[in-house]
Amino acid sequence: MKSSANILAIIILGSLLLFSCSSGSNGKKTEEELYTQAQDYSQKGDFQSAIKTYEEILKLYPDSPRAYKAQFLIGFVYSENLKDYEKAREVYKKVIEKYPDCDLADDAQYMLKTMGKDSLPLISDTGSASSE
């Protein structure tokens, strides 16, 4: 009877250990989980939390082939959601400097040139009633 109880205890402890290891090291989220979380924050309007989550991706996965996307998205949140163009400029410049060959480097360059401005130029109507 004692040996059955010992075997059961070992199985339970082993299962708990296996379960805790399979959920990631120390609860560390995967890169994909973090991207999803950041997008959820953005959709809910919690832009500071979105930025922090993208920064966490950069911290935990700095050598990831998608790290440049997190960097770009930080700039995007600053420029498009928070209208903090100064911080956005810093972040977009990092994208260009750290990841010059990535597919978002040109987009970062474009954002630097156009953020805070309407994307379409205003055309004055020379035949308007106000010119009469």
Tell me the total number of β-strands: 0
Report the CATH topology name of the domain at 28-114.
Answer: Serine Threonine Protein Phosphatase 5, Tetratricopeptide repeat
CATH superfamily of the domain at 28-114: Tetratricopeptide repeat domain
Mean pLDDT: 81
CATH C-level label of the domain at 28-114? Mainly Alpha
**Gross CATH architecture of the domain at 28-114:** Alpha Horseshoe
Helix content: 55-70%
Shape: globular
Distance between the termini: 104 Å
Report on this model:
With 132 residues, the protein is mostly helical. The protein has a domain at 28-114: Tetratricopeptide repeat domain (Serine Threonine Protein Phosphatase 5, Tetratricopeptide repeat), CATH 1.25.40. The chain has six helices and no strands. α2 (31-43) runs antiparallel to α3 (47-60), α3 (47-60) runs antiparallel to α4 (67-81) and α4 packs antiparallel against α5. The chain is globular and about 40 Å long.
